[in-house]
Write a structure and sequence with these properties.
The complex is a heterodimer of chains A (121) and B (386). With 121 residues, chain A is α+β, with helices and mostly antiparallel strands. Helix content of chain A is 20%, strand content 38%. Chain A has one domain: RNA polymerase II/Efflux pump adaptor protein, barrel-sandwich hybrid domain (OB fold (Dihydrolipoamide Acetyltransferase, E2P)), CATH 2.40.50. In chain B, the strands form 4 sheets. In chain B, strands 10-11-12-9-3-13 form a 6-stranded mixed beta sheet, with helices on both faces. A 6-stranded antiparallel barrel of chain B has the order 14-17-16-15-18-19. A 5-stranded antiparallel beta sheet of chain B has the order 5-6-7-4-8. Classes of the chains: A alpha+beta (121), B alpha+beta (386).
């Protein structure tokens, strides 16, 4: 399994043809206390860079974009029920949604962990 | 995915309050606000800061706000009071020494130029105005009151708010007289031996105090207060969620030059003496409009709104009286998440016919129509010590 990162602080865990997507620990630390998460509908066909989910802190709402194109296979209902999971485990339990990867070549522009670390340094 | 808050270090012209170094030392996350570099939150975060203020005590730096002394040239306070009544719809003449009152500067259309606090300090009036409006307020006072008053801005004073159920116990350690003060009492007091102006008031719905202190003593006083075990530093983020739960207006959002005090549900702040038939009825800018609305009602009203779901409904969201209406009936003026309610909370403007408590309206959020209930304010009961 490979983990890739976007420049706007999302992570993708690639497992065969499926990508699991969440926001990074750096992102949650910048957002502050998360109080609401809105997830896409299962089955929705997302285009790369389309607003897919919403994460809201006490102060502000931020969009989570689809880092690649694909159909939504599954969403994390436990996260919608307890949005504070984003703050406690952004890189793990607080995944947002899973996509069926439509075009593997879209993964080429993404960062590996070392590159992402350099990006947030 | 991050809608990054603007980084205040990139803005060269921001002013600093006398507590700026203290904020940095305490790990404050700084953002530009009304031309100042201000802490939006501290390491404990907005949620904890909010709940700590309601449960214990929080310290806020509000030194960006304007402090102005209004001194009667005649030496008689009533002359300053009557002069100020030419600019506000409040009764200032009847405000007793040692008391403070909420007021608004109105414009000729009956809208609000700013909202403010006015205290009677015996020899003069003491005003606290909003940071973003203070230059214009000062010019407004000079343009209209110069004949009767000396207008003395006090830029060399900081303003510290200590709010929450433990505020009295904490402040009493440094100012024994604080205990005897009641809500909206205000006057000069020694705090830690420093000459301060203390009022029992605030912007959170909690009991608490606002302390005007000479700039050079501000850090020493703030540090002493923060060293008390019950006190945490609180940023602008929690200040906003606290005042929203308390149903208090934020100038530039819930009230502005286009909203009258009647539309803004601030009629409680207009005393009988300034209304139709009162001893000093009218005589302030926009009096015809405001008195007309007091007598005959306004077409719209500021109301409390509680979203039925979990999604916060934020400022600017259009409001609809039916879920499939195309034309908005109003809009949300402030909205977010209320940590004490553990639920989203908002306020906004609706046609008076739809402003009754319990009514259902809809907000457009990200292409959906979310239902909200018109709710009584404050959302969280006030804890003022009257």
């Amino acid at each position: 399994m490979t983990t890739l990162f976007t420049s706007d602080h999302e992570w993708l865990r690639i497992d065969g043809g499926v990508a699991t997507i969440g926001i990074t620990d750096y992102a949650q630390s910048q957002l502050g206390d998360v109080v609401f998460v809105e997830l896409p509908k299962v089955g929705r066909a997302l285009k790369k860079a389309e607003a897919a989910a919403v994460v809201e802190s006490v102060k502000a709402a931020s969009d989570v974009y689809a880092p690649i194109s694909g159909d939504v296979l599954e969403v994390n209902d436990a996260l919608a029920a307890d949005p504070s999971m984003v703050n406690s485990d952004a890189g793990g339990k607080a995944w947002f949604f899973k996509l069926k990867i439509a075009d593997k070549s879209e993964l080429d522009g993404l960062m590996d962990e070392a590159a992402y670390k350099a990006h947030t340094a | 995915m991050l809608a990054r808050e603007s980084d205040s270090s990139q803005e060269p012209c921001l002013k600093r309050t006398p507590l700026h170094a203290l904020h940095l030392a305490r790990g404050g996350k700084m953002v530009p606000f009304a031309g100042y570099d201000m802490p939006v939150q501290f390491p404990s975060g907005v949620l904890k800061e909010h709940l700590h203020t309601r449960g214990h005590a929080g310290l806020f730096d509000v030194s960006h706000m304007g402090q102005i002394a209004l001194r009667p040239k005649s030496g008689k306070l009533e002359d300053a009071a009557l002069a100020l009544e030419r600019l506000v719809p409040q009764d200032i003449l009847a405000l007793p020494p040692g008391r403070q009152r909420y007021a608004q500067f109105t414009n000729d259309q009956g809208g609000l130029r700013d909202d403010l606090m006015v205290a009677n300090f015996g020899s003069h009036l003491f005003l606290v105005v909003n940071a973003a409006c203070k230059a214009e307020d000062e010019a407004h006072l000079r343009a209209h009151l110069t004949e009767d008053c000396l207008i003395e801005p006090l830029p060399d004073r900081a303003l510290i708010a200590l709010q929450g159920p433990n505020a009295e116990t904490v402040l009493a350690k440094f100012c024994a007289e604080a205990r005897a003060m009641r809500f909206m009492d205000a006057g000069p007091h020694k705090v830690m031996g420093i000459d301060c102006f203390v009022s029992r008031s605030g912007y959170t719905g909690e009991d608490g105090f606002e302390i005007s202190v000479p700039a050079e003593e501000a850090e020493r006083l703030a540090t002493a207060l923060l060293d008390q075990p019950d006190v945490l530093p609180i940023g602008l983020g929690a200040r906003d969620s606290l005042r929203l739960e308390a149903g208090l207006c934020l100038y530039g959002h819930d009230i502005d030059t286009t909203t009258t005090p009647v539309e803004a549900a601030l009629t409680w702040s207009i005393q009988k003496s300034r209304r139709s038939g009162g001893a000093r009825s009218g005589g302030f800018p926009g009096a015809d409009k405001i008195l007309g609305q007091l007598d005959g009602g306004a077409l719209r009203a500021r109301v409390g709104l509680q979203p039925e779901g979990r999604a916060p409904v934020r400022e600017g969201a259009p409001l609809f009286t039916n879920s499939d209406d195309l034309i908005p009936a109003g809009r949300v003026s402030s909205g977010g998440f209320g940590p004490s309610l553990n639920a989203p909370v908002a306020m906004g403007y609706l046609p008076t016919a739809h402003a009754a408590i319990g009514g259902r309206v809809f907000a457009a959020v990200r292409g959906q129509r979310l239902p909200l209930r018109v709710a009584a304010m404050p959302f969280v009961a006030n804890a003022y010590k009257r």
